[in-house]
Specification:
Blueprint (H helix, E strand, L loop, with lengths): L7 H4 E4 L4 E4 L2 E3 L4 H15 L1 H26 L5 H14 L4 E10 L2 E9 L2 H10 L8 H15 L3 E7 L8 E7 L4 H8 L7 H34 L4 H12 L2 E6 L2 E6 L3 H12 L3 H6 L2 E8 L2 E9 L6 H41 L3 H6 L12 E9 L4 H11 L4 E5 L2 E7 L1 H4 L2 H14 L4 E6 L6 H21 L5 E4 H4 L3 H6 L2 H22 L3 H10 L4 H8 L3 H15 L6 H27 L1
Helix pairs in contact: 2-3, 2-5, 3-4, 3-6, 4-6, 8-12, 9-12, 20-24, 21-22, 21-24, 22-23
Length: 599
Amino acid sequence: MKAHHLQFEKLIDINPRTGTIFFNRERIALVSVKALGILRKDLINTLGMERAKGFLMRYGWAWGKNDGESIKAKYKWDNVKELMLAGPALHTLEGVVTVEPDHLEISGDSLHFTGYWRNSFEAVEHIHHFGLEKESICWTLTGYASGYLTSTFGKEVIVYEDKCSGKGDPYCKFTGKTKDLDEDKFNDLMRYYKADSLITELDRAYHEIREVNKNIIESDQIQQKLTNMSLEDKDLSETIRYVASVLNKSIVIDYYNKIVESVFINNEHKLIYRSWTNDFSYTAEKQHGIATFPIRANHVNLGRMVVVGRDKLTSKEQLIIKRALSVMTIQMFHQWKLTHTLWKKKENFFEEMLQNPDAEAFEKRSYLFNFHPESLNRMLSVKVNPDTQCAEILKLLDKAHEGKDVFSKGAYILIILSGEEAEDPNAMAEDIYRLLQDNFPALKFYIGVGRKAESLRLLAKSYLDACKISDFIHLAHPQSSRISYFDNLEHVMMLLKGTDQEELILFYRKIIGKLVEYDKTNQSKFIMTLKSYLDHNGNLQDTANDLHLSIAGLRYRLERIENICHTDLKSGTGRFQYQLAIQIYYAIKIDNNYKKLLM
């Protein structure tokens, strides 16, 4: 017997009197595929996708196994291959799917069988009820083919889909293999064929639903407790302490890796968190049970919650965290609004104070600030380019420097330095520089530090100093972040405040720009020669002595300077232009040298 000799007319037997239909000597019933589709939908909705998949694969396996045993016993087959090919023919005749065998190879106890399924009723019905899926969905067909081949070949065979029209492919393509040819795939799929009854599946689903319901009730109770804590005006630290105790896990609220609040249940968790933030890796996150949850409200990034524990979070723990996050988000957003209101008040009052530095008016609203106007203070200004993340930077600086006055005004973020930090601002400025570079490496920062101030009037001047310095170093060094101080630029501050700074830099480049480039290219010292000559009021002998040159050598250098710059050194106007350009050059050079120290 050959597979293509199977004919529908010879296999079907219909008895109109009794209303029975036999196919291949087995009684069958004509059932609409729409009804099978509804059954499939109800199974998935009741059991879930994975359990319904296993149920339908086992159903298909039993169907295919029965057909295989029946067809094997009924006919005398020419060879094993014909018996294998009879399965696709029988499946097609039963109206389930059009099967087109492609490749069949039998070698001893190994079987490799591939082919195509077209017009799969399973794919059509699944798409109708659920739409396209990301994975193959012809579960009854793969079960049938696995059961048929296993019963006729005598060895366990697993069939799976390489392509499936249920996930958008133009056709379904199947592959069947014995265990020895693909053990991993075999072991992965065999778990679906465990003989669990529908009652077992429903019982398991019932227990899961009951467990979920219990978790919801417990998480609701925890949320109620957290809500009451919030209404009692408990702060964020108490909230996360309570959640950490419920979960028995460490919890950190951080913002750009800077801890806002934390509760570590042991030192090991603290070390794990620090190591993870310093050198983040997905492997470490999985090994140490680290989970992160963003905290956002009204399109504002408030930070994130980091949960540290040895084990992966259970569904119950995730539900508790979700409820806790809703309360924490409200707490943090409320605090954010208060902070921004305070920043705005500081900004507005600072504007008034600059326009009218009245000590009595300051006293009325001194609660807004932490500094005292009659003590030693300085203004530090941060200009950011681009300025799209100024709000995040302001929040980071405010958190990193608690107790200091941090606020924004226009294009600048301002910090008032007091006491020792005002006396020697280098360390504070460098700390701010590194903090910003570490957390916002793509941005450029121009940090200006104003003069010392021991009164509101001088503090207003210190503010103007700091902002003008930030603008100046932004223009002078647009490609790199910088710090500069009033003490280094005092000799040109009047020019910076009273002149268009861009024009000032263009003037310097016009007068001695070519000379600077010549020195760089030829490693000469014409700029030093020019400065010494101007410092000695054009006295050749004093300049030659200062530079350890002969008069002739000095004359040669001065002629070369005039030729390169096209400006007369002998005229008063020429000397004044050179003197001004030299001052601007050395102001910029100070910034360059300081940049190297930071690096």
